[in-house]
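Let's practice the habit of predicting before peeking. Look at the sequence and jot down your guess about where helices and strands might fall. Then scroll down.
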Amino acid sequence: MDWMTNEDLLIIIVNSGCITLLVVMAIVLGAATRMKSGGGVAVLIVATTVPVYIYNLSRSVEFYGVAEIAVYPACFMNVLLLPVLWLFVRGQLDKTFKFTAGYWWHFIPACISLLAMLSYYLPMSREEFIEDMLEQANGVENFVALVNDFIVLFQLVFYFILIFRFLRRIKQALQDNYSDSDYLTIGWLPRTVTLFGILFVIVFVTYLISPRTDVWLIPILNVIAMSYLTYNYIVYPVAGYICRLDSSVSEVKRASKTLWQTVDLDIGQMKLNCARVIDILNSTHIYRNPDLSLDMLSRETGIGKGAISRSINGYLQKNFFELINEMRVREAKRMLLLLKSNNYTIDSIYRECGFHSRSTFFLAFKKVEGTSPARWLNEKEKY
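Done guessing? Here is the structure:
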């Protein structure tokens, strides 16, 4: 293989390794989720770039017969990734979400890209196709490649604005209405989306600097992002958390918006409401209920949900979620100081304080105190 350069060898090793890893991740993800609760869509996300790397690999080893076939699914799946990512995020955070005919328009750009590729490459002879491949390897873009780049660039801006606006609204709605600290475990979802955003930006920047880097650097970064998605989706299933809520996210979003629009309180009334809320929380220890919601607190205090939400946000400068979990952490600190004398254990403490699991207790504690319970206790015992 005298024709092979060191760069060709690097491309072959990287792309073949990435194909293997992505296929393994897709199989593991499918087996772990049984293709339920969005597991099938997660598998599709992981598998979308496999045709791209098959195309890169076949082009590098001069298997142009394979490249002629792989170029079509590679192009289609490359443009399909961001719409599927959006639908995945939407489906994970809204248990009422169903894929209907109204969502098919998200796949129109991928179909346009595929039709452009078919109209461009099908009339070509093998020799013309090989010549086109060699030109692309040297950084000369053909018309359909430029169209594909434009579509992906537009999608990059459009879908990331769409996804992050949705995530921001979801976060506000959940934290205004629920105290479940398991919410902290789904923080990986926006971080995963951010990783994909960084990945796409690097794709364009590196391609502008050196066209050949996209066939070895990007696969490595993509596998890192997909590994992060696969691990967190299996360990911290978002759908499982959302299904425990007594309302759908879309209902919570609408209710939360209504609360803020219809309630108008002065600072004195907000202060009185907050005093009533905190008094009830301290006297009844209702914050120890891991499923405590704004609706439950409203019934306990006799104050409307809108008034409570407005008062906590306006007077205490925090949301319902933050208030309740700060009180849980305060109780946990009290119990940690009595750990030895009262034969408490970490497991008994997090349950008694209102946390669903040990992991969410540690996350909530670190968010409030900036350190783990063990380190906090060690610092206290020094004095």
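How did you do? Residues 20 and 200 are 22 Å apart (CA to CA).
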